[in-house]
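**Paired protein data**
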Amino acid sequence: MNKSKKVYEYLLIIFASIVSAFAFQLLIAPNNFAPAGIGGIAMLVEHFFPGLPIFGYFSLIVNVPLCIFAFFCIDKEFGIKSFIFCVFSAVGYIIIDYIGVEPYQYITEDAILPCVIGGIISGVNYGIVIKHEASTGGTDIIAKWASKKNPILNFFWVTFIINAIVAVASFFVYAYNPQTATFKITNNYQPVVLCIVYCYISSFVGNQMIKGTKSAYKFIVVTTHADEIDKEIIQKLNHGATRLDGQGVYTGEHRDVLICVVSKHQIVDFKNILEKYDNTFAVIENVTETIGQFRRK
């Protein structure tokens, strides 16, 4: 990797960490719901101590040792990048709280807005750091280590359990009024629901970011008219194709197998080409991302 690209990656991770700090401090913390993972636990702790920037310090106390662990036990660059994200985001939390930037606080009819906006921002940040071989700290580092030690281990269950605990705990934690130091359990499930919605949106957006936006469709065509179909693919779709030799398992007859990737706008055109020829069978698969040269028409 060239130096300029590496610098770009580090700057992008720093940018994501600062945005994450703003999102947490301005959208989530003031609106009485906790996000997932270590951050969610920190939010719950901070609810008991209003006015103190516990979230930032808690994040440093937990994540710095985890990043050091990642440096030695997982991957050095992964540990460094994760450390940068965690430190910049934690310092950002503390500075924003110290400056006293006015947060976004909901009113009754739009209580879901900070949750949705925060979830989207979190998902985008998550996608950025994962695509650049970093993490947001906390359970991400634990999950990375678990997958390295045991590749078949489904660490998503670990994350799910932690998130579920945070969601359930938020019901009781936000029943506590720090001003009067009293608990009042009611039927208000809003903190739990907002936590679940936040986790879902964050995960969905993050997964979309990781998958990429270069989606396409792959045709696998079994035919006796490979020459004709090849010609039309080149002339009408302006794409190439890969031809393989195939043999029917039942009949033993020879068939040509064509593999071609096209954009979603060309699916109908490709189908129209195939419908002209007999002894032709095709399978269409969704491709989440393409790597290398792929011209879109």
